[in-house]
Amino acid sequence: MPIHIILLILFAALLHASWNALLRGGGDKLWSMTIMCVAVAIVSVAGALFMDAPAPQSWPYAVLSAVLHIGYNLFLVRTYRSGDLGQTYPISRGSSPVLITLCASIFAGEVVGTEAMVGIALVSAGIISLAFKGRKLDIPGLPYALGTGCFIAAYSVTDGIGGRLSGAPMAYTAWMCALWGVLMPITYIVLRDARSLVAIRPGFITAFCGGLVSLLAYGIVIYAMTLAPMGAVSALRETSVLFAALLGYFFLGESLTARKIMACVVIAAGTIVIG
Predict the structure, then answer these.
(1) Which domain holds residue 85?
(2) Domain count across the chain
């Protein structure tokens, strides 16, 4: 994998951890997530109008991915209602690289080398170990965290294939995110009501900016997946847990234990092997 792709993915990992920290630290997480998606939709539509349209065969993947992203949003919001960022985030992100590698092998015909598989295994093991308290996974929202990981794997492989078929990965990203950004407010209105959605709250600017950060982060990942194996890109992206652990410690008052530090070393080793 070229060094500039590795650096791009690591930058996307930092951005991803940042917007998750914003969401975890907010009050009404469903509302914050919806405002993030509104920001994503506005910017995506504006950008898509200046790009060539993706190839027709990629559109079913864009639609499917948008729907999968809604499921991911709902599970992520539910996950953060019952656990710390430094505990639930690792489970959600750590369960996805291996799933993505398996799905990419089945549905995209990817063959991943032994060294990359070792690196992916190290990254996944390190990430998941961050979620342990002693010898237990004592997390009330564990099923939601694991469900979030499944949605991550599903939409990542969908977008990896769709981006490759599109002939224009950034345009594909823009239109997929536009669809996703439109579907999320509709979902919010169905679950609650339109009045509470349009009400301006103190965290509006923060949530809106978080949406812009999330869009940039995922656009980088889709671009990388067009140039490198999906499983390897996913594993590198999941190093965002390193940044999440630090953000949780400095800004959310969460602990940073010796176990977490050791897990970070394992993740870094896996990243080096993949690279």
Answers:
(1) 3-274
(2) 1
